Fold this protein.
Amino acid sequence: MAARFPHGPARARVPVPPRPRAARSRSGARALAVVCLLLAVQLGSLLAPAWACGCGVVPEGGRVVTVAREESAVRWDGREEQIVMSLTLAGDAGRAAWVVPVPHRATVGPADPALFTRLAAATAPVRRIRHHFWPRDDDWPLVTGGARSVPGPPPFPGVGVVGRQRLGVLDVARLTATDPAALERWLARNGFALPPRLAAALEPYVARRWEYVAVRVAPGAGAAPLRGTLDPLRLVFRSARPVYPMRLSRLAREPQSLALYVLAAHRMEPVSAIGGERPRTTFAGRVTDRSGPLAELARGTPYLTAVHQEFPSPASIDDDHVLRGAAADTPVRQVVYEDRLRTLAGLPAWLLTLGGALLLALAAAAGPALRRARDPAARTSISIAS
């Protein structure tokens, strides 16, 4: 007689041995590592923005160096241009090099680091308090809890060495070149490392017979990784029009930001966007300093313009920044507002207003009843009617 199964035929259950605890731990550790890596990449992209460096900073082989911040001041008096450049580096490289193309022969020397501190203060936004009536995020009751001279090398075909000097930890070479490939070889043989694409990017400068300031950071063997702000350099050269070299920033792999201070007789502006977003003037006005590094730099060029620009796609950068006089010396100063909830006697004004309006409404509704309660005739009529 065939057996009957009220819930269908029976299925044999094959016991599955439990996974070893060590295997589960390794699997969980791998998953945790992947998650941590993804979070690190995302946080890195948010917390470490790249700054535009038209000089093409290159670390030693196998290492990483980034320009955490670049500050540059350009002074132009109609005949001569000065570029004061300060770089803040981050990474694990002990050495790095960069190249600054210039239209004419340059002299190079140190600059006062206090210049950029003063420039930042002079162009800082005005901070004002702005009150709002209705509560916003982080206002009660909508609080979310969130917080907001080295000896020169021997002659090299196609490259001329104008001079070589040592400025602190910086080894500076001033060069001419008639062949970008020869310039690449000279830089490589003399400790100025270059990526392969940089030689091609230098071709337009070679065609226009520009010269080059090559800078190398060489703290010495076994030195700590490059981190922090380097001593600023001052480059001085003849120029018929003010120019800031930017073309080499097209080799960057991450979006770039440019912060540029321009000192001239009048307000200045970039001629074009050179492949980036529209340049924004964040400050324009006359220098009021009577002494100090900013007053010294502004002597004869009293009008200061601060320009900020973003380059979401550095490969689109197609030229250097050429600056021209603006239509007028209209002053510009950014205003940063601090929004605060309007209060009266320490209490939110909106709460007091709503509370007062509610009390008035209650009083208006209760008024007729109170009047009837106080009127004897009204009480008598009510009693008879009942």
About this structure: Residues 34 and 40 are 10 Å apart (CA to CA).
